[in-house]
Structure formats: C-alpha cells, structure tokens
Design brief:
Residues 22-120 form the Alanine racemase N-terminal domain. There is one protein chain. The protein is an alpha/beta fold. The chain folds into two domains: 1-28; 32-112, TIM Barrel. The chain is 44% helix and 10% strand. The protein has five helices and four strands, in the order αβαβαβαβα. The protein has helices at residues 4-21, 40-48, 59-68, 87-93, 103-112; strands at 33-34, 53-56, 75-78, 96-97. It has a four-stranded parallel β-sheet, with helices on one face. The longest helix is centred in the first third of the chain and has 18 residues, at 4-21. The protein is globular. The model has no long low-confidence stretch (mean pLDDT 96).
Length: 122
C-alpha cells in the first residue's frame, strides 16, 4: 500500500516530466492538494512530505481543519462554489480563491478581507 508521501513523489515526478515535455520553466507548475473529505492527520502527513498548498471545497470542513492545523504554515485555497453569505469567512480564512464567478463575489471578498492580511489571491 502506498503512502501519501509515495503518492506525492509519483505526482511530482509526473509533473516534472510534463514540464520538460512542454518546455516550461522548472517552477511554473505548482501542486495543489485537494484535501476535501480528508482528515487533518492526512494533511499533516502531506505537509511532512513537502506540500504546503491545500484546496478545500467545503467551508465548514475547511475551517475545522484550519483550527486543527493552525501550528503549520499552510496555504489555503478555496476551490468550491461561493455563496454570498459565506464570503466573509472565505475572505478571512483563505489565501487563494479559485472559484470566483461573478464580479459581485469578487467585490465582497475584497471588501471583507481584513486589512491586516495580505490581499486575497484570485
């Protein structure tokens, strides 16, 4: 049975092969681990294997993991559909948002991002 670390190495190798085949710069592709439905312990194992970026679809699940893993310097990506009533929590707790589909959502995220945090990446 392969471990999370083994899987990360295999995926990393495939990414490097694809980068070379496409003649792209070495660091032009970044692995984002989609961690929805996975326990915090699995994310900890992935972190130990070198991953730093984690994508979540479900806000409530993500917030629980963020609390449990607050001791790790993780980069959190929101990749699920965005409901207007959840923009404040997303703006406050994520570093990246990949699923902005309306100008109204982008404006709300920008307005609700705490001033002490760096700008939200979209």
């Amino acid at each position: 049975m392969s471990t999370i670390a083994d899987n990360i190495l295999q995926v990393g190798s495939r990414i490097q092969t694809a980068i070379q085949a496409a003649h792209r710069p070495e660091n032009s592709v970044q692995l984002l681990a989609v961690s929805k439905t996975k326990p915090a312990a699995a994310l900890r194992e992935a972190y130990a294997a070198g991953l730093r970026d984690f994508g979540e679809n479900y806000l409530q699940e993500a917030l629980g993991k963020q609390l449990e893993l607050a001791d790790l310097p993780l980069i959190w990506h929101f990749i699920g559909p965005i409901q207007s009533n959840k923009t404040r929590a997303i703006a406050e707790h994520f570093d990246w948002v990949h699923s902005v589909d309306r100008l109204k959502i982008a404006q709300r995220l920008s307005e609700q991002r705490p001033a002490e945090l760096p700008p939200l990446n979209i």
